[in-house]
Amino acid sequence: MPTIRDLVAAIRQREGVEAAVVLGRDGLLIDSQAIADFDSEHVAAHVPSIIQFADEFGAAAARGALQTAVLEHEHGLAVISCLSPDAVLLVLVQPTANLGQLLYELRRNRANIAALV
Q1: Cβ 80 vs Cβ 6: under 8 Å
Q2: 75-117 pLDDT, tens per residue?
Q3: Where are the chain's structural domains?
Q4: Is the dihedral of CA 67, 83, 19, 6 positive or negative?
Q5: Are the beta carbons of 80 and 69 closer than 8 angstroms?
Q6: Are residues 58 and 64 in contact, defined by beta-carbon separation less than 8 angstroms?
Q7: pLDDT value for 109
Q8: CA-to-CA distance for 30 and 32, rounded, in angstroms?
Q9: pTM for the model
């Protein structure tokens, strides 16, 4: 059976992926692989507040809890995927990456990925 480390490695090997980070809902790092000079712990610490405000927005808009968020920034994109009540997957990708395929695979395999955490 694959492990969290295997999952992170497989995502990180995708073309255009700069970082794959699994973290707890509290922002503590579980596992990560990233480009050199990337501070996974620092970035992971910011994710819980994004999820909190997205969940509040979802409640106000009658959309429910956050499942996946895509944040587009000047130098790339961040995908936040809530795997379970305890774990989150953060993937940072270059602007040229095949985002559609990544999102499809994350959504299709969410339950399998969550089982690893």
Answers
A1: no
A2: 999 999 999 999 999 999 999 999 999 999 999 888 888 888 7
A3: 4-116
A4: negative
A5: yes
A6: yes
A7: 86
A8: 7
A9: 0.93
